[in-house]
Specification:
The chain is of the alpha/beta class. It is built from nine helices and eight strands. It has helices spanning 13-24, 31-40, 44-54, 61-72, 90-102, 117-126, 165-179, 181-188, 202-214; strands at 2-6, 27-30, 81-84, 109-114, 127-130, 136-138, 157-158, 192-196. The strands form two sheets. A five-stranded parallel beta sheet has the order 2-3-1-4-8, with helices on both faces. The longest helix is centred in the last third of the chain and has 15 residues, at 165-179. It is globular. Bound molecules: adenosine monophosphate. Adenosine monophosphate binds next to helix 2 and helix 3.
Length: 217
């Protein structure tokens, strides 16, 4: 299966991707995670990306497309993948289509995560991530047993630099302006499926199982 998880920041794409990845043995490709790793390692790419990320703006398309081209060529993508946070603009979607065509592959579906703005702000401002293993918590909805300590590995929890209220509002604005047009783009391609990200995750589990059943890879 080759899936795109499309939706605003805070809709739970990363959290759900972890479950789907484990169940179906897919590669989970989060462009945000790749960029944060580059920032941490202080690479040239990381230095370029940091200013955009801290302001809640999108990193330029050519940087992101080059990154994805390299990542999709890696071995763990052969069984399929979940793209989480990519594409985020129409030019990125067009570049992805060309890239997959050149690889003789196609997308299985694009799952659009729907959620109201208030819920997204609450989720993002309460989000905490483990500095060691990347596990995701939320101070209101999914707190760790011990404050600021990861249940899974005991690592310290941190708040992402861009999960602060002013940056969150900007990220949501950027989503509406630059990424939401992809909903129509993929609807026209006949690939779009919707998931109510404010409700229980069971319907996503059922949807992915249905897609897996039909997938002719
Ligand atoms: P995320 O973890 O997906 O919320 O991404 C965090 C930040 O990384 C975004 O606010 C952007 O600055 C940058 N980013 C991640 N994915 C992309 C993308 N596909 N295109 C442009 N910028 C991206």
């Amino acid at each position: 299966m080759r899936l795109i998880f499309l939706g605003p920041p805070g809709a739970g794409k990363g959290t759900q991707a972890v479950f789907v990845k484990k169940t179906y043995g897919l590669a989970h490709i989060s462009t945000g995670d790749i960029l944060r790793a580059q920032v941490k390692q202080e690479t040239e790419l990381g230095k370029t990306a940091k200013g955009y990320m801290d302001a809640g703006k999108l990193v330029p398309d050519d940087v992101i497309i080059g990154m994805i081209r390299e990542r999709l060529g890696e071995e763990d993508c052969a069984k399929g993948f979940i793209l989480d946070g990519f594409p985020r603009t129409v030019p990125q979607a067009v570049a992805l289509a060309e890239l997959l065509k050149s690889m003789g592959r196609h997308l299985t579906a694009v799952i659009c995560f729907d959620a109201a703005d208030d819920l997204l702000v609450e989720r993002l401002s309460g989000r905490r991530t483990c500095r060691n293993c990347g596990a995701i918590y939320n101070v209101s909805f999914h707190p760790p047993e011990k404050e600021n300590v990861c249940d899974a590995c005991g690592g310290p929890l941190m708040q992402r630099d861009d999960d602060r209220e002013d940056v969150i509002r900007n990220r949501l604005r950027v989503y509406k302006e630059q990424t939401a047009p992809l909903i129509e783009y993929y609807e026209r391609e006949g690939l779009l499926r919707r998931f109510d990200a404010g409700g229980a995750p069971d319907s996503l589990v059922a949807l992915v199982a249905e897609l897996a059943g039909k997938d002719d890879a």
